[in-house]
Amino acid sequence: MKIICIGRNYREHAKELNNAIPEKPVFFMKPDTALLQKNNPFFYPDFSNDIHYETEIVLKINRNGKHIDEKFAPKYFNEISVGIDFTARDLQAEQKKKGLPWEIAKAFDGAAPIGKFIPKENFADINNLNFSLKINGKTRQQGNTSDMMFSFNRIIAYVSRFISLKTGDLIFTGTPAGVGPTAINDHFEVFIENEKLLEFNVK
Ligand code: MG
What we know:
By secondary structure, the chain is an alpha+beta fold. The protein is built from four helices and 15 strands. The strands form four sheets. A six-stranded mixed β-sheet has the order 2-1-12-5-6-9, covered by helices on one side.
């Protein structure tokens, strides 16, 4: 399986990092070795001093497809969850300055914690979903999927023009504003509406 991540999908987040508002979705990938599941701890890596959290809604692809038309995109995912797109912001800044790829800052082991997946039918409207992150009991990031510049369906249509999607692939759909640094001993709790779907410690 593969993990596709959308960058700069929330206007206020693009602005907080001084990035231009994109006209097309920006995407990058993480390998399966980045996955962190079952609330296992995240080990702060020794190659960075500025690991940031980015709280995101994650889609799970449930059928194979390519060149998926936007109107058929809902048939290609039936479950959603939350995830953290951990980013070594110091390494990413060096790469961005040089115009180089971001993998070193985004694709490392453990950089993709994901929560429990929930059928999307359980939600009244997935295009108007609140999601949030608490660290050590304090709310640190809050978003609503209605603020996405590119909808879930648009993302699936766009990405599948370039890369075939397969059952089990995951799509991180971008982070709202409020990203920030984490530290050893932090306790993460991630919610969709009031339901906690992910919880882990930083070690
Ligand atoms: Mg992200």
